[in-house]
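Q: Is it fine to ask for two folds in a single conversation?
A: Yes, each is treated on its own. Send the first.
Q: Here.
A: Result:
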Amino acid sequence: MSSSTSDFWTELQANLTQILGKGEGRFVTVSPHASSITVRGMPDEIEAVRKYVKSIEGAVTRQVVIEAKLLEVTLSEDYQQGIDWSHVHSTLSLNPIQAWGGASATNTTFTQLGGGIALTFKEKGFQSVINLLQTQGDVSTLSSPRITTLNAQRAVMKIGNDRYFVTGVSTDSSTTSSSDTNLVSSNYDFSPFFSGVSLDVLPQISAEGKVMLHIHPAVIEVAEDVKKVKSQGKESEYPFATSEVRETDVIVEADSGDIIVIGGLMRHEKGNLESKIPLLGDIPWLGELFKNKTYYDRKTELVILLRPVVVGGETWKEEIKKSSDLLQKWYPEEK
């Protein structure tokens, strides 16, 4: 996951001190717990501080509601190379296509990047994109989170669980005083491994209402991998972890209410599925007649849909109405 560190109040005090200067009698005192600032200086310097604090306050208090859908598309035989994003581009009214990192691109970029793109388009809901994806494979929804965050404040959504696995083994040996017998003790180090879906979003909201999003989605699948370790002439088995990760990091700019689509995170699975008739399938040799083995070769693509909405005067009313409509749909009133 991406990470960053910042100290808002320390940076604010440093900036205000720079505005005032270091002349005699000038000082800045910042109290984070009381959310207060005390300044002493000349009238024109204090006026400059007031304007700066007002601009900062306006930027910091901006909020954005982020709706998200994480979809997994099991591709049909006609789209084994990935979703045909050029078809998506020609079907929907898209804004200029953006490649990883937000660089502008043309339609030829679809082939060059192997389907790895980020793009935005103006639409009221996700359903039109989902309907289009269903023409290229089976669509399943992994998660549909919705969060609210302040301007320039990171929002993290994680859905899954932590499993503990052995990450280190050490042995200590000692000799007893009454005999030459060696006593061997083993120490195990366990660490948590996250398995599931995570979405890390950092929004930057402009004064005009545009939103720049630094997006880091990841789908992590952790499985147990038993390893044999030989120590002190003795072989033991330990449950280590193996993980499969699909993630990317992209920066996209969009207007409030636009839908952002991120695709291109492919996965390829091969294997055999075995089914058998109970009891009869367990008979040695003869049981093979009562078993059925199926070979599968499956390709899937992870697609992330995001819709940032800058909070305005009517935003909360709209969000409350959406929640009320969902509750009415899930728990209809009895007539």
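Q: Second one now.
A: Result:
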Amino acid sequence: MGSVMDPTALPPGFADQLADYTARAAAPVEAKVAASTILLRDGAAGVEAFLLRRRTQMAFAGGMVVFPGGGVDPRDATDDVGWAGPPPSTWAQRLGLDDAAARAVVCAAIRETFEESGVLLAGPDEASVVDDTSGDAWAEARRALEARETAFTDVLRDRSLVLRTDLLRPWTCWITPEFEPRRYRTFFFVTASPAGQHAVAGSTESDAAGWLGVGEALDSAGESVAMLPPQYCTFLELGQYATVSDVLDAADRPIPDPVMPGLDTAAEPVRLLLPERYAALNRTA
């Protein structure tokens, strides 16, 4: 693979935000908690991921390719939801959170995946998954969730479904740099796309969606595929594995320490500082 992206380069618009932040000597904005799911499948050339391209009008990451995800809704924290898989206390250990926060993040990851791709990691019981999420009724549920007209717990309860949290694996956590006016503490998860379900775009925040091989994503990053450092570095990591099963096995552990890019102010132009492991992976990509 011929990687073309330098993840330490400031993305478009970041230099202006840094200059404004420095001029105002402002305190960092508190990072909101968010969740993002890397939906995976095995393709002819290796592992593929489902991606969304955010509309250019979006205030955060406009025009960038991202994984399904978004902020935690306060209603994600409720314990009034069918739950299959590791209990919130186990997720708390894996994510470095308390039980209630871990429950909310895991619920948000599954909810956002459904909202933005139509893939629902839930089923009638702990051993099954919904086999089809196409059709008008499911589309309306996705729309109502995105508009915050209904709670995810209501969608599940009305259909007698339980969350299949055992299908998720924690991958990593990224925190938006301090100079950004919109900051997120995003927990990334990996999961295999369930058999029978088909990922399709549906969010008003995106204008394109589809599956892309990890190798193709790395080769195209920074040119035809615009992405931020968290997504690019995630593809560098995924590139170490031949199958989705390999990725899930590697993710069966607590997440590494959160990554918050620093700044190399001595460089001209200023560059982001990232853990060395990403530089090493980028050199071999």
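Q: Anything structural to flag on that second result?
A: Two points. The mean pLDDT is 90. The longest helix spans residues 99-117.
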